[in-house]
């Protein structure tokens, strides 16, 4: 079952400069800064902005991440309901995820807890 919105990707040209801007201008906290995974958020927020250094954002990618209890189980459940996945569950050096799209081709990310 989908539990919450985990993150929202914000495409930036330089993640180091973006971190400083969000910190200095908006007062956001730096939550993580490890390679590609750079996140900031207002103090006390459960949802973070993932400052995604890439140009341009991939076609259809909303940058919205949803957190799930069990990625494989959710993948099976949603696939069984006819949800089209653009990326089956995949483990990478920066994390595990899957991606699905809605009727209009908007892609959403699923991440396990």
- Domain count: 1
Shape, per Cα inertia axes: globular
CATH fold assignment: 2,3-Dihydroxybiphenyl 1,2-Dioxygenase, domain 1
SSE series: EHEEEEHEEE
Low-confidence stretches: none
Major sheet: arrangement of strands: 2-3-4-1-5-8-7-6
What share of the residues does DSSP label as strand, in percent?
Answer: over 45%
Q: What is the helix content?
A: 10-25%
Evaluate the radius of gyration: 15 Å
Largest sheet: 8 strands, mixed
Supply the CATH class: Alpha Beta
The secondary structure category is alpha+beta
CATH architecture annotation = Roll
Number of strands: 8
What does this structure look like?
The protein is an alpha+beta fold. The protein has one domain: 2,3-Dihydroxybiphenyl 1,2-Dioxygenase, domain 1, CATH 3.10.180. The chain is 19% helix and 51% strand. The protein has 2 helices and 8 strands, in the order E-H-E-E-E-E-H-E-E-E. The chain has helices at residues 15-26, 71-80; strands at 2-12, 29-34, 37-41, 48-53, 61-68, 84-92, 95-101, 107-112. Strands 2-3-4-1-5-8-7-6 form an 8-stranded mixed sheet. Strand 6 (84-92) and strand 7 (95-101) form a beta hairpin. It is globular and about 45 Å long. It starts with a strand and ends with a strand.
